[in-house]
Amino acid sequence: MARLKAFTMPKWGIEMSEGTIAEWMVAENQLFAKGTVLTLIETDKITNEVEAEADGRFVRLIAEAGQTYPVGALLAVLSDGGEADPAEIDALVAGFKPVDAGFAPDGDEAPAAAPEPVAPVAAASAIPDGIAISPVARDKAVAAGLDVAGLAGSGRGGRITAQDVDRAIAPPTAPTLVGVLPTPPATTVFATPMARRVAAIHAVALEGIAGSGPRGRVRKADVLAAVPVPAPAELSVAAPVPSASGAVDVVAMSSMRRTIARRLTEAKQQIPHFYVRRRVRADRLLALRAAVQGQRPSVNDYLVRACALALMEVPQVNIQVHGQEIHRFADADVAVAVATEKGLVTPIVRAADRLSVAEISAVMAGLAQRARAGKLKPEEFSGGSFSLSNLGGFGVEQFDAIINPPQGAILAVGTARPEPIDDDGAIRIVPVLHLSLSCDHRAIDGADGGRFLAALAGLIENPGLL
Fold first, then answer.
1. pLDDT per residue over 404-455, tens digit each?
2. d(Cα 381, Cα 389) in Å, to the nearest integer?
3. Is 106 left (phi over 0), alpha (psi -120 to 50) or beta?
């Protein structure tokens, strides 16, 4: 008999709460060998390849490609390679308890959860043997006194599963949804929260919609397919107007883009930002860089070093904010914004205050390459005590950045452009950088931000100190 194991959404990094199944690389009941890539899972920062820990096969794929699931959610059922009894698969699925690992530990077969004691009100013989029902579902139905004769099974071939029985005996409930979208009315239809909200928005009844999700669950796409398309005369003037060519390209947000949108919206709404701005002359820094022989560090590499040393001089800015606590760090872990095809990633130069500019340049080259390839490890982008965002390479003169929580500050750097400055009473025109420091006013005062920029300016204008 095949040995079954639960295949669950893994957890990479302490901040990961969900992942998206980008693609299943093996089909259901297809044999695979140890080391085979089973699936690609997208998180808010990277796409990971999940490899098989041993030979086997998927006896049931539960999660759908393109859908997002929380950490520990059941994605599929594995076997050691042998054929599996559908009843045993049903039992594992019905009794599954979420775990924080990609594979259930050896010996943990995710057994069915023991139901709360219920006084039986019918004998086992009350369910005829001819009805297709799993053993676990039969026991639950008998214990609850449920007549399964009219129950539509969602298992293979119409087999009644434990989930079908649970839904039939559970009191009508609906998730509590809050936000700007309308809350849908209570219904017993098995549907996702988003499907319920979309149905409420478009005044579509969930009853009667055939669900395409696992076990017949109604999904958003099912509801949208049932939304009546208005005739041209019914369209309001507020409807989207296509371009002159008539073509509109609608692109769904990636998992990374959705996470960026959520985190930055929360940061802008919940963090009291204030901004400290300063001009600094960059001619000496650019001259120092030009004198370097061989592989030259980038201007950004010098800025990472300068930020790290300034953070050591003004430790009030080298922090994270966690609720009512301020965490101060002994080293400057500087997160550097890197643009990728999927969105913004902030790999971290750990202990940048201990590294030379050349060492920072080598570290950043590797981090940037892995970031653009989606191969960063969780520890390479999680945490950090400060962020640096430089748009000078795009010709941007000045901008204000949004704080990357839980960090307390972020520095925005524009391009170096020729401007007049006072040089010991003489007017000179030299390249000048425009710096803007965004600070979390819950933990950083204006004086702290001012001292940090003063320290940073001193380092940039006297680059020999770097």
1. 999 999 999 999 999 999 988 899 999 999 999 999 999 999 999 999 999 9
2. 14
3. beta
Per residue in 348-365, pLDDT (tens digit) is: 999 999 999 999 999 999
The dihedral formed by the CA atoms of 99, 104, 108 and 109, expressed in degrees to the nearest 10:
100
Residues in CB range of 134: below 8 A, 6 or more apart: 86, 87, 90, 91, 94, 155, 159, 160, 161, 162
| Single-letter residue type at 14 | I
pLDDT given at position 269: 92
User: Catalytic positions, please?
Assistant: 441
Task: Tokens for 40, please give them.
Answer: 């690609």
Measure CA of the first residue to CA of the last residue in the chain; give whole Å. Answer: 67
Amino acid present at 293? Q
Name residue 388's beta-bridge partners: 336, 411
Supply the DSSP symbol for 51. Answer: E
Q: Which of 11, 102, 45, 101 is nearest to 376 (CA)?
A: 45
Report the 10 Å Cβ neighbour count for 298: 17
Distance CA 371, CA 298 (A): 18
Token pair for residue 384? Answer: 């950090």
Give the tens place of pLDDT for each residue, 40-71. 888 766 777 888 888 888 989 999 888 888 88
Residues contacting 411, CB < 8 A, separation 6+:
303, 307, 386, 387, 388, 389, 401, 435, 436, 437, 438, 456
The span from the CA of 405 to the CA of 423, in Å, is 39
Q: What is the pLDDT of residue 230?
A: 62
For residue 7, how many other CB atoms are within 10 A of its CB?
A: 24
pTM of the entire predicted model = 0.56
* Tokens, residue 60: 């049931």
Which residue is listed with tokens 């005829």?
Answer: 128
**pLDDT score for 104:** 40
Return the minimum-mean-pLDDT range out of 52-61, 123-132, 336-345, 418-427: 123-132
